[in-house]
Amino acid sequence: MHWIGAFDPDLRSFDIILRTANGTSYNAYAVRGDSGVAVIDTVKASFGERFFHRLETIADYDEITTVVLNHLEPDHSGALPELLRRAPRAQLYVSHQARPMLKGLFDPQEFAGRITGVGTGDTVDIGGRRLEFFNPPYLHWPDTQCTWLEDEGLLFSGDFLGCHYCDTRLFNDAVGDFRFSFDYYYAHIMRPFRAHVRSALDLIEPLLLRAILPAHGPVLRDDPRDYVRRYRALSGSGLHRNQVKTLAIFYISAYGATRRMAETVAAGAETAAGDNDAAGAVRVSLYDIEGSEPHTFVDLVEEADALIIGSPTINGDAVKPVWDLLSSLTMVDVKGKLGAAFGSYGWSGEAVPMIEDRLRRLKLRVPVQGIKAQLSPTPDEFAACHALGREIALHLLGRAEARVVDMASLA
What we know:
The chain is an alpha/beta fold. The chain has two domains: 2-235, Ribonuclease Z/Hydroxyacylglutathione hydrolase-like (Metallo-beta-lactamase, Chain A, 4-Layer Sandwich); 245-396, 3-Layer(aba) Sandwich (Rossmann fold). 28% of the residues lie in helices and 22% in strands. It contains eleven helices and 22 strands. Helix 10 (351-361) links the parallel strand 21 (338-345) and strand 22 (371-374). Helix 7 (257-273) crosses helix 11 (379-396). The radius of gyration is 26 Å and the shape is elongated. The N and C termini lie far apart (62 Å).
């Protein structure tokens, strides 16, 4: 079995959002069986010649019977079309979810009859060695899969359990300390799909692992199960909930009006939490985000069941710290959480509907209309803030009153 990938030590950002102080590697592998050679993943297109040079040193193209692509992203599929042209006997194996996406890489008609979709439990034999496929999707695209070489105890894990860390010594027991890169990669790539990570771990933990061969970063041959345990810890819940629902209220205030609204929203939520001897059924937390980095709140958002955001309107917009917080939510899974917004304004009040729209686009449910108050809130507006907090808490407890919606009003 051979590593035939490429090193990219000068890369300093990946997919715009990741910093790569140590560059990265594009890992690809070749496995020889008695009846053919399997190539698992390729490299970024600009590194194709290095990939083909390494491949040619260990196999002839007419020996290649199997190509496995665990993930379609261009850093893994860049050399794929040319590989299929050079290896005319090769059959391409991708997940069922990947098949309709191949048209984004090449014209599938060029390789008609040479593409096979596979799912968990499917296998391909290359003569004395059998590749088995696991399909835990959304790690971190819908198409992702892992490939298991049971005879050798080797898991080709794709992006899963990888990291952006370039070291030509390749193996985890020989390279430098890459623990920060491993955790950083999880936080920015895998964390939004935490539930899918846990499902994948359920598939992988029973395996008799000898080594994990990811698509980026060091090959994990020394104590590979330690990295599986680390993912299990990272993907677990940080709170001991005991059935307690959690509501996080984040706000920033220019002259104190939005702060007072936030305090009133929190007070309203607390009244619902104490209804029917259910004290403590909702844990309400209030956070002033002024002067704080948004990443410090990401853990809180991830663990919360509901998120309410307060912002003043300045120059027809919510303020930058609020947008920074909202943009950081792409790092975590917030789909299905409850959301709401409030805030004071001087002239127009666009911040509240803009925040609500962003929450909906992040797949939060926004069941209660936001509250806007011009300058200093009136008693009626404070009462509306109180009702907002209470209503969101009641939704969390499953005790919100059913509403009759006039469909004509939604037109």
